[in-house]
Amino acid sequence: MNKFAKNIKFLRILIFIATTMEARSEDNYVLFTVKKYNHGFFRVIEEEKRYIGLEDFVEVIEGRITDTGSDLLVELSPVTSMRIDPERKTLTFKEEMIKVKDEDLMAVDEELYISIELLRRLGEVHYNKNDLLLEFKPDFKLRYEFEGDVRDERVIFDSLKKAEERKEERSVRRVENRLFSLGKVKGTYSNTDLETGEHRFDLDYTSRILGGQFATSIDTVDGKVSYWNHTYDQILEDKDIVVGETNSNLAYFPNSSFKGIAIKSDSYTKEFGRSTIDGFAATGSVVELYKNGSLYDYQTVKNGRYSFEDVRVNSTTEFTVRIYDESSNYTEEEIDLKSSRNLQEKGGYDYNLFLGETEEEEELRAGEVFYGITEDTTLGGGYLSLEDEYAEDFGQGSIIHKSDYLPLTYRFSSQSNGREADIMGNIYLEVLNYDIDYEFIEAESDIYDFESKRSLSAGSKHENFYYDLTYTEEDEKREYEVDLSYYYTNISFETGYIHRIEEDEGRSHIYRGRISAPLKGGARGIAEMDIIDEDEGTEIEYEVRLQNYTQKSPLEYAIFVRKDTEEVRGGLELSYDLVEGLTGIFNYSDSHGRFGVRAEKTIILDRMAVVSDALDDSWIYGRIYYDENLNGIYDSGEKLAEGTILFRDEEFDVREGEYFIGEVSSEHINEINISRFRVLPEWKAESDYIYVEGRAGTGQRIDIPLTRRGDIAGTLEGGQSTIRVYQGALLIREQESEADGFFILENLPYGNYIIKGGGLEAEYGVEEMERGEFLRLREEKSEESNTSDAYGI
Predict the structure, then answer these.
(1) Residue pLDDT, tens place only, 3-54
(2) DSSP string covering 667-684, please?
(3) What are 533's strand-pairing partners?
(4) What cellular component GO annotations does this protein have (predicted)?
(5) What is the DSSP letter of 592?
(6) CATH annotation of 710-785
(7) From residue 156, how far is each of 37, 182, 619 by CA, in Å?
(8) What CATH number has the domain spanning 4-146?
(9) Do the beta carbons of residue 510 and residue 502 sit within 8 Å?
């Protein structure tokens, strides 16, 4: 977009905002969301009111501002606009004329800013200063809703000429992190029971030092420190330097709580079986758990720690934890059980260091390093000292090898106290679309509560369906487990069966089931049931839970009914934002209600990033699929395309329907050529070329549906004429026939059409013409005109 300030007669603006001040008391940079449009570091100025830049707002929604000479025409979408009359001091929107107050506008740096109150005339506005979030729900359709948006991003099915014109009207900016910044500080006070409860005060501080991000969190209960953590990341590549409480990712202590000093990777591992996935995050932030790419569960962090309990973990499941900060940005932590987790490229290395104590207050000193001797083989070694009553010292070694035939990990360790060494081994194979994992441990130390353990797991994935079988032998206990699960978007179904044999306890059968699904208004319903059949009898345990922790509403709640052993309990958790930064809390359980309060305040001391005019590269990714039900989105069961696409004359593979294109220029219009995806002659995209504008420093998801399409050919008896194609009463295409009346209408979706022109009015079905017949007609017509490429052949 051309700069608004350069194309407008600024004197008229000064008349319009005669009472405006140039000075400003506070700037906030927030995440601005308008339906599917997102813009980070969007500027909000706080004076007597809150103001946003009119030009910035119009740029986000891809509108346009035009000075007509008498007023300002603001095109909000292809069919919706508003007018600002500077002399009459009016705003006209949807034929309604609104009188504008002087204090609703201000001029800053020769740009026009409008108040959020004025923006509410165009739709619903939600501004949360603590979360640094501005949401706008317009009372009009946006541009992408008219241009055929595909899933989460919009795609331009237009001519290259028009796309180039759009590029000249759009400016792209990026955000650059500062080397040094005072950052921001957030304080939170909470008491869940004002009558007898504990007083909790949490302090979170974030800043930038030498380009890395420094964060500190301190939680207190009744004046005593209960949790503390200082983290410095983005300075040692993917490493975090942590002082305080964190999770270890050592082979002996996967994801165990640890307090001290650590240099560690972002990712961490879990043990097989039913497990708890927990970690640390700022109080009040939202944490989402994704299982195999689908949202599995989410919660709001309380007291600096999150915990997802009783989660089934095995070699066929990949978990990702997303932790959202106050700006709605998130960091991800991967939980990876593949045996090649620490596989390094040739010459590459990785390491982890820990110095402190475990949850049992045992002193721990540990370190490990991995080095890639070839592309497929990594050697690792380390040392671990655990000062408990047995004063264990370990030397660790590992070999990690991966190939197309035999991915193999083997670890071993030895102790210095003269006992036989603990031996750990793990073999991971991929055979005939099955993941097979064999793990064994022979333990002589007291770190484990068993002497011998063996586990064999075999699982497979078919589209969104997962299943696996597991056999575990631990000392005198044997266990067989079958798990079936289905994940679709945000809905998941799980069922399982466990047969357990213990020498002292006898046999038991456990039947499990779980369903998690989104509900209206951002809520989520979760239902779980276990039927435990033992020699002594049968027990049923269940929990039904309705929760909404999305933070998109002032009301958050959780309602649950739970039965364990012989007791049935119900409960209610409510929190409501009374005013900005103050939340009322009500909990009810065990026939007792408790009222509480939570107050929070964020103070921005200094911006951690600045907006730069420099352009940056972006990236494009998405899915290509056969859209059988013509709804424009991918549905379970629809086939995924395989092949290659062209981008800047470079081929990119599409495997299982997924593609990724990096280093997309943000200075030019880019085109994706998908003409090769005519795997079946009748399956095509709406266009062979999809034009995409690069966006500085941000990725775009573009899903491309393939639908059944065909062609119609014929001859008009009256010679050359205009052909009009109707679907029902809707005109969908118009083109000229050849001089002799011959025409070919290409790439029409399967269906019936009415063709009008040159005295012809007839109904055609696209599926009636065979592809070979269409090509023959093309060839004949090309020979007649002696122009072999007249129709693109």
Answers:
(1) 444 334 443 444 344 334 343 456 777 778 887 666 766 788 887 788 888 8
(2) SSEEEEE-GGG-SSTTEE
(3) 509, 538
(4) cell outer membrane
(5) E
(6) 2.60.40.10
(7) 15, 42, 16
(8) 3.30.457.10
(9) no
